[in-house]
Amino acid sequence: WSAAPAILILRQTLARVCARSSWGPRCCSKARKSTASIRAIPRAILVDTHVVMTGKSALDTLADPTFDARRMVILNREPGAADGAGAPPAVSNRVAFTKYDIPEAFELTAETTAERWLVLSEVYFPRWVAFVDEKPATIHRANYLFRALRLAPGAHKIRFEFGAKKIYYAAYGIHIGANLILLVLIFFMFRRRGGRITASLE
Q1: What one-character DSSP code corresponds to residue 102?
Q2: pLDDT tens-digit series, residues 18-51
Q3: Distant-in-sequence, close-in-space partners of 128: CB < 8 Å, separation ≥ 6
């Protein structure tokens, strides 16, 4: 899977930020360099370390040619404890998608021999929720606009869901139910009217 759509959104967002800020053309140049530096990253990758940065500092680091996004992830706040503690031991470090059903959900498996970050080239949005080994997990904002999970050592099953999905299904169910009730009412109305017409003809 290509991260091109996410990269495009990142470019557009950074361009708007630059246009409204006092950082000037240098900021836009850094934005282009930062998106270019993470263009080649896979959609999902395991990263060893993190650093906390925001705003211009994050952009400067992303634009730095020495920054290696395959080894470090930039977060916007200090993280909590790793998710997935007590998982079965892992013998390797790898991650793979097992289900990809955008825009509703996607699933992955990940194995890590030490505590690591699972970084996704998927745009961060608050209504997404994550589960590691069927337990709620914290989604961190990573590399300015993407997502990351902090994983404990072991073999994990990971699932991302869009949090508003249940609301959507509930509204859809109400809509269908209301239409069925309306059809039933129309049926009985015409049936009753038909009975009156038959009686008058007799």
Answers
A1: T
A2: 444 444 444 455 445 555 555 557 889 999 999 9
A3: 139, 147, 160, 161, 162, 163
